[in-house]
């Protein structure tokens, strides 16, 4: 049995903070100056999740997925703010407020939980005000605390379940793959925002893997190894919050890696 040194490094990176990038930011990366909400809405769908796919999920899994996607948008904004790119960060905080939150609100109400609108509006205002990274992080703290409190309404035996965490990670990988497909047209980047979305969702999936793979490795070392290997290949497509000059791999390869993760997860 090989030592899981890559997973240890992965868990250590996550323990250091959610805003730690998967790899170091690309030097002198080219990026589009995205305006705030008006430009964002050109590409935003009423709901970023497919209704047919959501219908197949139980309420806890769908709820957790939406919360992780909110965190993924905030994670992308954190990384961008650390580089002083507040207009791009504001595109992600606006997306969280205006696109990701509305479909989540009925489930919050069903669970007797208040809306996250005030907290996310304050985050978005801080990003647009460009008062610095610390100001944005301070505004994010109440929103993140509320997200975790909401997450804790999911029964603990499910939240701690390896199967639940892997199912969530797989859903986030699928969302990241869809964002990757939208970001590139051939070898040309057409939507930076979508590339960054995928980066944020991958960060959330990484957190889920770091908490589930050690337990899985004790039971099913081959399955854990296969999932980890596919993930490590997958993350190469997002070397940083900035896209490379051309795609690292085609969308078909991304889909194949996600499928490999799903096949192995279904063997449990």
Compose a concise summary of this entry.
The chain is an all-alpha fold and 268 residues long. The protein is built from 12 helices and 2 strands; from the N terminus they run H-H-H-H-H-H-H-H-H-E-E-H-H-H.
Task: Write up this protein.
The chain is an all-alpha fold and 268 residues long. Helix content is 70%, strand content 1%. It has a two-stranded antiparallel ribbon. The longest helix is centred in the C-terminal third of the chain and has 28 residues, at 192-219.
Strand count, sense and barrel status of the largest sheet are: 2 strands, antiparallel
Q: How confident is the prediction overall: mean pLDDT?
A: 85
Secondary structure: helix percent: 55-70%
Radius of gyration: 18 Å
State the separation between the terminal residues, measured CA to CA.
Answer: 19 Å
Low-confidence stretches: 1-44
Q: Which strands sit side by side, in order, in the main sheet?
A: 1-2
Compressed to H and E, one letter per element, the order equals HHHHHHHHHEEHHH
Number of strands: 2
Task: Please tally the helical runs, counting DSSP H or I stretches of 4 or more residues.
Answer: 12
Class derived from helix and strand content: mainly alpha
Shape: globular
What are the salient characteristics of this protein?
single chain; about 270 residues; mainly alpha; two-stranded antiparallel sheet; 2 strands; about 70% helix; about 0% strand; globular; disordered N terminus
Topology record:
Elements: H1 5-15, H2 37-43, H3 51-55, H4 59-82, H5 86-110, H6 117-129, H7 133-151, H8 156-159, H9 162-183, E1 184-185, E2 188-189, H10 192-219, H11 221-234, H12 251-265
């Amino acid at each position: 049995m090989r030592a899981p040194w890559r997973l240890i490094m992965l868990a250590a990176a996550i323990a250091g903070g959610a805003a730690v990038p998967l790899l170091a930011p690309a030097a002198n990366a080219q990026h589009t100056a995205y305006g705030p909400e008006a430009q964002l809405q050109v590409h935003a769908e009423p709901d970023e999740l497919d209704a047919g796919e959501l219908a197949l999920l139980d309420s806890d899994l769908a709820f957790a997925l939406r919360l992780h996607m909110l965190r993924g948008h905030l994670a992308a904004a954190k990384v961008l703010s650390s580089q002083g790119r507040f207009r791009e960060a504001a595109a992600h905080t606006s997306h969280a407020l205006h696109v990701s939150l509305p479909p989540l609100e009925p489930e919050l109400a069903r669970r007797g939980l208040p809306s996250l609108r005030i907290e996310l509006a304050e985050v978005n205002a801080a990003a647009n005000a460009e008062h610095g990274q610390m100001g944005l992080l301070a505004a994010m703290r109440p929103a993140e605390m509320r997200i975790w409190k909401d997450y804790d309404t999911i029964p603990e035996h499910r939240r701690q379940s390896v199967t639940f965490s892997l199912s969530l990670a797989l859903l986030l990988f699928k969302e990241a793959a869809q964002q990757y497909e939208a970001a590139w047209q051939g070898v040309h980047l057409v939507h930076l925002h979508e590339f960054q979305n995928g980066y944020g969702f991958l960060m959330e999936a990484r957190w889920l893997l770091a908490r589930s793979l050690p337990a899985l490795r004790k039971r099913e070392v081959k399955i854990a190894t296969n999932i980890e290997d596919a993930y490590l290949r997958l993350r190469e497509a997002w070397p940083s919050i900035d896209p490379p000059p051309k795609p690292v791999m085609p969308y078909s390869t991304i889909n194949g890696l996600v499928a490999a993760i799903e096949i192995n997860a279904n063997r449990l």
